[in-house]
Amino acid sequence: MKEGNGIMEFVKGIVEREKSGYEEFLEKAEGDTACLEGTVHSLRDMGEIGFVILRSREGLLQAVWEEGVSREDLKEFHEGDCIRVTGTVKTEERAPQGKELRIKETEFLSKVDQPLPLPVGKWNLNTSLEAKLNMRPVSLRNVRERAKFRIQEGITRGFRDFLYHQGFTEIHSPKIGAKSAEGGANLFKLEYFHHPAVLQQSPQLYKQMMVGVFDRVFETGPVFRAEKHNTRRHLNEYTSLDFEMGYIDSFYDICRMETGFLKYTMDLLNREYRKELDILKVTLPEIKEIPCVTFQKAKELVSEKYQRKIRAPFDLEPEEEELIGKYFQEEWGSDFVFVTHYPSKKRPFYAMDDPEDSRYTLSFDLLYKGLEITTGGQRIHDYQMLKDKIAAKGMSEEGLEQYLDAFKYGMPPHGGLGIGLERLTMQLIGEDNIRETTLFPRDLTRLEP
Ligand code: AMO
Fold first, then answer.
1. Which of 254, 375, 424 to mutate to test the pocket of ligand 1 (most atoms within 8 A of CB)?
2. Which of 39, 98, 113, 201 qualifies as a FRET site for 409, CA 20 to 30 Å off?
3. Per-residue pLDDT of the chain (449 residues; tens, 9 = 90+)
4. Ligand 1 nearest-atom number relative to CA 242
5. Which residues, including other chains, have CB under 8 Å from residue 350's CB and lie 6 or more apart?
């Protein structure tokens, strides 16, 4: 709403609207007049009456069209139309919310051009993942599909809230750079005004440099991995929840911070996302403590218990991760387990080696229901040690000069972690493909929508 003196208009901030939100509607008394806005989520023509289910950000509400009472013809309504309806409030115990709006007048704010290609008004879409991804703007309107991403919002919000309270500063690092930190073959290369450049695989270099500035930083943002394989847990672009903190005594400080974040977030979801949890029938894990096991020990435990040969001594195979998850659920009743001391061979150059046995690093992965959702650990903070490690890994310092300067000019002992947001969401809500918990997935074959 604009206000003015006839010559100039002024905007003063948000104004209370006369239209009732769905929650306010439900507080109204029988016979009150109400005006609601929303999309026609589903329609049921019963002859003399018709059910017009409205969808808004707040959820669904039942409006009822009645012959002779409603001004517009029911035939004018289509699923997908955006409408503003005015009518009277009626208590109706058969209505999903216990109240419904008896429609008197309808204003069509916009009308669909064509019938919807998917039955988004149904509880279960019953459509293949492929079809859902091909029609993303429509499929996400389904209440269950939408709920997944509200829960994902809750996780990001939990991460932010929790870390703000722990004295972290939120940063935003560039996604294009000369060099990335994670190594391996999964780099997207591009040309940047005739210079070779890469898309960042993680904010690793930047968050470490920023420890020298703020001590504690975090970032939530996209990262890029040119994975050439098509799996249920890999994306080519995903959202990474990263933090990095200085003045740590050991990498267990990082594990503690992550455990704190998880507890805080489960509590937040429980309090503020109950509707979505119920829609998806999610039972949140109860986290009191998370067991820690070394990489080596974890391998031995599952090999013994499930009679499985150790094939890859320096890495965890996906099946091994699943079995570690199963083991800790069966033996310790925990969905989560920190697997610590990963072999140096498989960790990037910045990981701190264990001074007691340099074949291993002071780093960890967090497995949740048998899937890696986090990698973290203590980093090298000594300038010379870092240079030696870069050389030992056969890497060049080119493109890392400024990163190395941060260490040349002093860095505290520090560490951090990166959590895959889509993976965490997928495990939490019990999906079996990461694309189910990605709004617009990027994979080997998918560059749009
Ligand atoms: P890492 O490479 O292990 O570590 O990644 C951290 C977490 O990101 C998620 N993840 C992925 N999710 C979807 N698709 C992918 N292709 C993919 N790759 C990884 C996983 C994984 O645990 N810089 C370090 C983190 C750190 O030490 O701070 C890093 O990026 O959940």
1. 375
2. 201
3. 556 678 899 988 888 776 668 999 999 999 999 999 999 999 999 999 999 999 999 999 999 999 999 999 999 999 999 999 999 999 999 988 899 999 999 999 999 999 999 999 999 998 999 999 999 999 999 999 999 999 999 999 999 999 999 999 999 999 999 988 888 889 999 999 999 999 999 999 999 999 999 999 999 999 999 999 899 999 999 999 999 999 999 999 999 999 999 999 999 999 999 999 999 999 999 999 999 999 999 999 999 999 988 888 889 999 999 999 999 999 999 999 999 999 999 999 999 999 999 999 999 999 999 999 999 999 999 999 999 999 999 999 999 999 999 999 999 999 999 999 999 999 999 999 999 999 999 999 999 99
4. 28
5. 181, 204, 208, 379, 380, 386, 389
8 Å CB contact between 351 and 344: yes
- The reply to whether the predicted model has a pTM over 0.85 is yes
DSSP 142-159: SHHHHHHHHHHHHHHHHH
Residue bearing the CA closest to ligand 1, atom 15: 234
Give nearest CA residue, ligand 1 atom 11.
420
Contacts of 124 (CB under 8 A, 6+ apart): 144
- Integer Cα distance of 427 and 369 in angstroms: 7
Q: If you measure from the C-alpha of residue 311 to the centroid of ligand 1, how many angstroms do you get, rounded to a whole number?
A: 23
